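Researcher: I'd like a structural prediction for the single chain below. Treat it as a standalone chain; there are no partners to consider.
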Amino acid sequence: MLSHDRSIATFRPSNIVIWMTMAFQGGYLNMVALMSCGKFVSHLTRYATLLPKFVVSENTVEFSLCLFIPAAFVTGAIFSAFLVDSRLIRERSPKYWVAFGSMSLCLAGLLGLGLRGAFGTFGEGLIEAHDFLFLSALAFICGLQNASITSISGSIIRTTHLSGIATDLGIGIVRLWTLKISRPDSVPSFIQI
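Model: Treating it as a single chain, here is the predicted structure.
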């Protein structure tokens, strides 16, 4: 089902479906965070860029957010790396089921807590400590997902970053076009145009 290969030419339809589904999930998590607290969770460049601004302005809420969200994302990526990447490097079977099962359990837990009102009123903005916990959990899930798919795809796909997916799409379109022109018989049948 999932393969670890460094060549974009060996993408299988099943992998593309999985990556697109994961990209949808990453966008969905970002939208949930935006609608519930007014903040994105997978746009780490934003937090790194704004950190000095909040240090100077002494805005402790935004400063804390600029630290917690990236830290949670990186923690998720570290967790994934132990389950997937380090096992691939040591030529062991990656524990995809643990990585994706953890994401599912975290999401189910957040849903259950949210339905019970543990995170306050939906859409109230970033007010309480529970908002940081909620956003950090979503960022952890994004980091876990992104690192898992990045390891699986040989560092080609990052499903929580649209710029990476859009870049890969652009490169892929040109590669397919180039293959069709230079070697029409080498284009896989499922993507021949």
